[in-house]
Amino acid sequence: MTTAATRHSDRRISPVFLGILAVTAVTGWATWTGFAERSGVAVFLFVTAAWIVSLCLHEYAHARTALHSGDISVGAKGYLTLNPMKYTHALLSIVLPVVFVIMGGIGLPGGAVFIERGRIRGRRRHSLISAAGPLTNVLFAIVCTAPFWLDALDGVPAGFRFALAFLALLQVTAAILNFLPVPGLDGYGVIEPWLSHGVRRQVEPFAPFGLLFVFALLWVPSVNGAFFDVVDSLLGALGIHEFDTYCGYELFRFWRGEDGFCAVSP
Q1: Any transmembrane segments, and where (predicted)?
Q2: Quick one: which of 69, 122, 137, 158 has the most CB atoms within 10 Å?
Q3: Does 59 qualify as catalytic in the annotation?
Q4: pLDDT tier at 1, thresholds 50, 70, 90
């Protein structure tokens, strides 16, 4: 019933998103074949474009779940078109997550779609809307890690394997961090409907700073080390060695020069 109120044009896939998909496909091909003169540039473009695709799907999951939960306004706002330019905070949604990847190799989606919570009834629905985004990162991580835990990497070029391993790391870190019960992150959104009104009012002023607080905390060496120990353990259980993610990150940061340890033959 809710989808009937959404026009077909409101759900049409945006040319912007299709363009990002095309960049992902072309640079993925260039990474696989070694077509690019500098493999690091191809890896950077492939990982960045694929990461933005995952950000779009993350926010689409929020919007789509909200639509089926009662907020029929998301269609008119353009949230169902997968167009990142339609998000309420383009800086937080696209620019900052890419900066986080460049600076620290951390996948952390920002805030994006504005949900009219007053249209939605039931605490479970509110929680599900918040959980839908990071669950998309979990699904994306499964897709990226599948070739590793299925032992399907025979004949796969090293550069592409490294890029895929790094992309998997970004999805795993995004899922873990977004599920943290920190105001401003999806994990807090999952539990917020179950908190008392007084607690929610006290926490609300801190929500705009939750994302930056988590990122700043990860710059503390002991916290960063413990966090990546957990990430590396999860990836290791899925068949991804630290060497693969390390080289993926090194190739991604092509401007630092080529690391002979991770050299990729054309």
Answers
A1: 16-35, 90-115, 127-150, 162-185, 206-228
A2: 137
A3: yes
A4: very low
CB 100 within 8 A of CB 249: no
Q: Which of 37, 59, 116, 242 is catalytic?
A: 59
Distance, in Å, from the CA atom of 158 to the CA atom of 212, rounded to the nearest integer, reads 34
Per-residue pLDDT, 60: 93
3-state class of 182 per DSSP?
coil
The CA distance from 75 to 89, in Å, is 17
Hey, is 220 helix, strand or coil? coil
**SS3 state of residue 228:** helix
Q: Are residues 44 and 252 in contact, defined by beta-carbon separation less than 8 angstroms? A: yes
The token pair at 42 is 């191809």
Share of residues in the chain with pLDDT > 90 (%): 62
What type of residue sits at position 56?
C
Instruction: Say if CB 107 and CB 174 are below 8 A apart.
Output: yes
DSSP-assigned states of every residue in 18-85: HHHHHHHHHHHHHHHHT-SSSHHHHHHHHHHHHHHHHHHHHHHHHHHHHHHHT-GGGTTTTGGGT-GG
**Is residue 148 a contact partner of residue 238, using CB atoms and an 8 Å limit?**
yes
